[in-house]
Amino acid sequence: MRFRPLLALLSLTTLLAACGQETASPIGEATPVNIDGAWFVTAYQVGVEARSPGINTAAVLDLNTATVALEGAAGCGTFYGSFTFGTEADAAFAGFTIPGRSESQCTDETRAEQDLVIAALEGTTAYAVEGQALVLTGPNSSATLTPAS
Prior knowledge:
Blueprint: H1 4-18, E1 37-46, E2 49-51, E3 59-64, E4 69-74, E5 78-88, E6 91-101, H2 108-122, E7 126-130, E8 133-137, E9 141-147
Antiparallel strand pairs: 1-2, 1-3, 1-9, 3-4, 4-5, 5-6, 7-8, 8-9
């Protein structure tokens, strides 16, 4: 039962992506990859320990460039917020603000995992594109995102 919100989010983003709608991006022309849509968080790091989401804590992130909003799920709950991407003085910058989350179906273990995923996203200060992956980095954190479709 706890996978229904994640599956619903993934299904909705896949359906919207299939519609082929393109929108003007407030992100700007500097972003070299289309970041709009669903992404899997395939690896993340906060502090010195690198991790991958566990089987019960699969993490997905949906970025909407038209509204600069994000929604996500990390195993036991959902979260939402906003993001920025751009370039300044030939450096790629990025940032995430995640003020809201639900933890209604979290255990202590899955809540801790979700908190680490959110901390990795909120610690982002820069990005790089490696193949189809979007690599987010910060002074003490990183996250690797791969397209969900």
